[in-house]
Amino acid sequence: MWKLHRYYLRELTVNAAITFLVMFAVVLLSSVARGLQRSQGGGMLDAAKITLLFALDAFPHLWTIAFLLATVLTFVRAAQDRELIAIRAAGIAPRVPMAAAVLIGILLSVCGSVAMHYAIPYVHYHKYRVVADVVRNAFLNLKLGTDRINIPGTGYVMTFREQVGSDYLDCTIYCPPDRTLEGMVSPILRVDKVSLPPPTEHSDSIHILPQGVRDPIGGAMAAEIPIEIPLHDIADRERRHDRDDDLGSDQLLAEVLRGVHPRPHEAIYTLLRRCCFSLMPALLAPIGFCIAEFARERGRVLALVLALVPLALFYLGEIVGARLLRTTESPWSAWMPIVLLLLPGVPLCWRQLRR
Question: Using one digit for the tens of pLDDT, what is the confidence trace for 226-247?
Fold first, then answer.
C-alpha cells in the first residue's frame, strides 16, 4: 500500500506546487500597482516589500484552490488511464488512493492553521506599515512627489524649479491674502532655497526654512522665515486604524475574554472564520477525488469546471456568513462556508466511494 500512496503523493505534490507557483506569480504581478501606490513616501525596496506582503496575504485562498485543482487533475488523469479501475479490480477500496490526498490535505490544514492564526495577521498588519503611516500621509498630504507642495494650516502653495535632497531651489510661494507676511506687497514671494527635511516616524513637527526671500514688488525681505507645522495636523488624516484581521488569534481571544474588545461577536466570527479556512484543504481532498472519478468519461476540462462548484459554494458561504453576522450578530455564521460545502459534498462522496 505504501508504494501506491507514495506514487500519488509524489504526483499530487508536484501538481500542487506547480499550480500554486503559477497562481502566486499571477497574484504577485497583480499586486505591483498596489505596492507602488502604497509605497509613496518610501523607496523601491519598500514597494517590493509591500507587493510581496500583499501577495502573501492571499495565501489562504491560493493554497486551497491550488490543492483542489491539483487533486482533481491528478485523479482524473488516473481515472482516464484506468488506474482507479485496476485498483478496484484488485480488490483495493478507492479510499486507499484517496488517502494520499487526505494526508496532504491534513498537512496543509495543520500548516494553514498556524498561518491563519499567527502568520497571516502579521502579514496583514505589516503590509500597511512598511512605510510608516506618519511618513506616508505626510508625503501624500504635502504632495511631495509633485512640483507643487501644499503647506497645510498656512494656505501656502510652493512650486520649485529643482530639488536637491531635502532642499528646493528657485521657489515661488503663493500666500493667501489673510496670511501675508509683514511688509509684503505682492501675494507672491520668490525664494532662493527652501529646506524641507522629510518627516520621520518619531517627528513631532515639520520645520520649513525659506532662505533668500524676496517680494517681486517690494524687494528683499527677511533673510530667513522659519515655519513650523505640527506633524499630527498633516499625518493623522486618513490614517488606518487596527482591525481584527491585524491581530493574532491569541491576542484577539484575550481581548474578548477580558471584556475589552468593543465588538466581541465580530472577534469570535474572525476566529471561527480562520478555523474554517484552515479546515478547507482537508475537506476538499475527498471531494476533489470524487469529482475526478465522477468526470472520468467526461474529460479533464469538465472536471476542472466541476471543481469550481465547491469553490463557488465556499465563497458564497463567506458572503452569506458575513450578511448573517450583520443581521443576527451570531459569530457561528462563520461556519456557513463549510455547511454549504458539505451539503453537496457528502452525498457525492457517499455515492462515489460506495460504488
Answer: 666 665 555 544 455 567 788 8
